Amino acid sequence: MRQPYFFVAALCSLCFIPLPATAVDLVLEECRISGGPGFPGIKARCGTLERHEDPSDRNSALLPLSVAVVPALSLEPEPDPFVPIAGGPGQSTIEFYSLLSQAFERIRRSRDIVLLDQRGTGGSARMECAIGNEVVEGQLTPEQTIAATETCLDALPLRPEFFTTSVAVEDLEALRIALSYSQFNIYGISYGTRVAQHYLRRYPDSVRTAILDGVVPPQLALGPGIALEAQSALSKIFDRCAKSTACNERFPEIIDEFAALKERLAAGSVSVDLANPLTGARQTVQFGDAELAGAIRLLSYTPHTVALMPLLIHEAANENFAPLASQFLMAMERMSASLAVGMHNAVVCTEDAPFYDDENVSREALESTYIGPMQLEALEAICSVWPAGILDPDFKTPLATDKPVLLLSGDADPVTPPHFAERAAVDLGNARHLIGRNQGHGQAGSGCMPEIMGRFVGSGSVTDLDAECLSRQFEMPFFVDFSGPKP
Question: C-alpha distances in angstroms, 20 versus 23, 119, 423?
Answer without folding.
Answer: 10, 18, 32
